[in-house]
Amino acid sequence: MASTPVQGAQVVARIAGLLRLVGCSAEGMPLAVLVRESGLTRPTVHRLLASLAAEGLLDHDPVTGNWVLGPEILLMGSVASARFPMEDIARPSLRRLAQATGESAFFSIRRGNETVCLLREEGTFPVRSFVLHEGVRFPLGVASAGTAILSFLPTDEQEELLGRWPEHAGAFAANHTVDLVRKNLARTRLAGYSVNPGLVLEGSWGMGAAVFDRSGRPAWALSLTGIEPRFKPERQEELGGLLMAEAHRITQQLGGSADGGRRTR
């Protein structure tokens, strides 16, 4: 009897993990990639996918062969959006940023030790970076949004992640060394905004600013991405100022305060 909750929790964790993987892209994921990324056996993954499809939570695209999110997810998301009206709150800021800078603007949320891109607004500049789009997840501290958020978390929470950085950052650890991440965090706390100098993908730069909740904790982030020539040092201060102004605007709309972030400096 005592083992039953553990077994049940393990199944739930596996299902949640597969749903998150499939949800990383509108195109979904093929079975082979889901097996590799989940670390589960192929029969286990296939059985779970089939069960999720039977409940309408996933679909199998007959053209691409990918597994994609199903109609029940759309219905759940529609209901949940009433509790999290981030489209109404963040979209105007994204539009202003995209129009003022020409770059693509994004709104991301912290989920545990990750950031997840929720919203995107394309800029007018014809050459773009396609590293970031809705549903993309990065380890906290990786990319501009994750760096902005981690920078203003309490020191003990930062150190907990930095103490196991290779495990936490995974494939991103090679370019995001602990020493480099620490320097980026310190630089972000000082400037108020983060700069990602092509660490995720060479030539693709990004900048971010944290959005704070009512307790003063960084819970979301605004970011801009584009090609390296658009993020020269002489332009970074301008872009950073625009990001921080919009981040402050959203923080106020959410009833939040950046005071908690300042106390971590």
Automatic annotation (TrEMBL):
Every HTH iclR-type domain range: 9-71
Domain IclR-ED: 72-256
SUPFAM superfamilies: GAF domain-like, Winged helix' DNA-binding domain
Keyword Transcription regulation: yes
GO biological process terms held by the UniProt record: negative regulation of DNA-templated transcription
Keyword Coiled coil: no
Gene3D superfamilies referenced in this protein's UniProt entry, alphabetically: 3.30.450.40, Winged helix-like DNA-binding domain superfamily/Winged helix DNA-binding domain (1.10.10.10)
Protein's name in the database: DNA-binding IclR family transcriptional regulator
Lineage: Bacteria, Bacillati, Actinomycetota, Actinomycetes, Micrococcales
